Amino acid sequence: MSEQSHGGPEHSGAVEHAGAEESRQYAVDNPGLPPHRPRLADEDPRAAKRAERQVAFLFGLSIVGTLLFFVGYFVVGQIGPGTPISTVRLQNMLLGLGTAFAMFGIGVGIVHWAKTLMPDHETTELRHEVRTEADRQVAVGMIEDIIDETQVKRRPLLRNTLIGAGVLAVLPAIAIFRDLDDTDNRSEFAAENFGPERLRHTMWATDVRLVRDPTGTPIKASDVTIGSAFHVIPEGLNELDPHEMLNQKAKAVVLLMRLNPEDMQVSPEREDWNVDGIVAYSKVCTHVGCPVALYEQHTHHLLCPCHQSTFDLTQECKVIFGPAGHALPQLPIRVNEEGFLVARSDFHEPVGPAYWERG
Question: Where is this region: Disordered (predicted)?
Fold first, then answer.
């Protein structure tokens, strides 16, 4: 039986042949754009005004939510070990509701604005490369048309409430990241309790011994062999109050390793910061503060498991890959008379993320 009688692909019409039947029409023609269906706000000025008030109300709700957040964050006060549970619950409720209203109001308000007031005509335009000055002017004109279509200029109530909600919505995040203090001395706003100074100083000081984490066993230089890595804390850390111990450990935790001195590129000012290839670096990643805990002996790389930032131990923990923007701070060390590794001083720079105030 022939292929045609079997309905083969070459004769069934399932396969198109180049150049054949050029005048043949496609099975489905381009339907074009659907007819525009006007909304109620497009035909009724009262409906448009009502929609404008609804959007402004939602933006106002966002503003109220942000203010509610600040009431919970600043007015309720510092939460500590002795704080009554009722105060903790009140603050959590205010923070949660404030954040929810702030995000809900501005988000739903923008969506409602777009659905009810912004032009919704569907158009089709060809994309052209913007190269000539005339094309640039056309692009500028398109941007101006978009601004006009948003009706920002014609509806100052929406513009002003949106600006207010948008500006206030980011303030809680700024306050949270700015506030690095966890002491009861919040009202003084002292420089030593806020900002980079809080991360500049740790428990490391002259002649403080390096001890293993978490046992607290002192480390001798002879204990550190090439390729080994120790998780290190300052001596005396484990004797602190549990709350204070965690705060201090978050800043002071260190990685201790030993390299072949010939593989190291040491800056002139750091020549006495290592002991025959034994080096100590902060374990706190300079991206967002995750613990750097992976050491590759053959490549001499330290890796942060959170976002894959990679630091080269032979180049004083310089960033060679990933989002971290700063090398890991180095802890100067030496050997005391008993052969134990001790710190020469504290870190010479703040530990942790490379934020804008770091210097």
Answer: 1-46
